[in-house]
Amino acid sequence: MFTGFKSQALAQSQDGTGGYQQLRLDDTPGQGRAQLSTTQHASTLTLGHLKGGHDNLREGERGYGADLSTQAYGAVRAGQGLLLSSEPGNTQLAATGALSQLQQGSDLLKRLNDAARTQQAGLPSEPESLPTQDGLKTLQDHLQATHSGSAAGAIGGGAGEVPGWSAPVLLGSGQAGVMSLTPADQVWVSGTQTALLAGSALNWLSQGHLVLAVAGGLVLYTQGSKAAAGSPNQETGIALHAAQGTLSARAHKNTATLAAKTQVRIVSTTADVQLAAPTRHLLATAAGAYIKLDGDDIELGAPGTIAFKGGQQVLTAPQGASMSPVTPSASHKLCEYTARAADFAGAGTMGAA
C-alpha cells in the first residue's frame, strides 16, 4: 500500500533513531494520500485522505483535503496576488462569487451615498463620489484583469486566457461566512480607505468601551426605509440610548443644531428641563411670536394678542419702603398773617387768633 522515500539523519544513521525526511504515497483504495514531512519542527504537508500514523502504520482519521502544519514559523507569500477562498473554481484565481459580492457592495455604497447627498447629509466640500467608492473601483479593476498564455515554439496546446490580477491583491472569500477571532487584540489598519458594507445589518458590540475618533468630520445618516424581511433589527431611524450614566452631545467651538420636519420634543420623565445661556440671551420663537430672556429683562412679542391665562394669577408690584407724612406744628399767640396785615395797614389793634 505504501511507496516512497525516507532519508536518515547522519548522526544516528547506524541505529535509525535520529530524525528523517520522508515522502510517503498511500495507494489504499478510496483513501489515497501523499505526504511530505520532516522531523525538524514536526513539519508536514499531507494531501488527500488524511490519516494518522508513522512509517507503515495507518491509524485514525484526521480529515480530508490538505493539511500543512509545523511547530515553528509559517509563511505564505505570492508576489503578484493571493486568493484565499472556499469557493470552487476551475482556474487558479477564479473568484466569481467574490467579485459578484464586491460589485453588490459597491452598488450599495453608491445608492446610500446618493441618498445621503439628496438629504444634504454630506460634509462641506465633500466630492460627489466618495474616496471609498474610488478605492472599490480600483480593486475591481485589478481583480478583473486577465493574462494570456501561449506555447513556446511549435508545441501545440496550452494557449488561452485566465484571470491574472494587475496588482498584488490579497483576496479572502468565504461562501458560508468568514470569521476572524482572537482572545487577544485585533488590529485593522489601512493607509487610505476602509469600507464595511452589509446587505442586511452591521452590528458593533463591545463589553467595554467603543471609541470613534476622527480628525475631520463625522456623518451619521440613515435612510429610514423599511428594513428587509430577514433583517434581525426591524427598527428604522437613529436611536441613542444610555440605560445608565449620562448622554452628552457638545459643540465646543461652533453651533449645535437640532432640527426636524415635524415635532421636536425635549422631555424629562422624573425631573426638570433646563435651557440656559449664561452669557447671551435665550430666545424662543413660533409663528412670529417670541419670548426673549436677556439678563434682567423678559421680552414678549407677538403679531396678535398676548394672553396670560390660569386658574389663579398673582401679579406682584415692585417692592419699596413706605412712610406716613409728618407735618410741622408750632404755638402762636397771635396769627402771624393777621399781624403782618395790621402792620402793613398801620392799624393799632388786631384780633387775637
From TrEMBL:
This is Uncharacterized protein conserved in bacteria. The lineage of its organism: Bacteria, Pseudomonadati, Pseudomonadota, Gammaproteobacteria, Lysobacterales. It comes from the Bacteria. It comes from Xanthomonas oryzae pv. oryzae (strain KACC10331 / KXO85). InterPro entries: T6SS_Rhs_Vgr_dom (IPR028244), VgrG2_DUF2345 (IPR018769). Residues 158-319 form the DUF2345 domain. Residues 52-62 have a biased composition (Basic and acidic residues). Residues 1-62 are annotated as: Disordered. Residues 1-15, 34-46 have a biased composition (Polar residues). Residues 17-116 form the Putative type VI secretion system Rhs element associated Vgr domain.
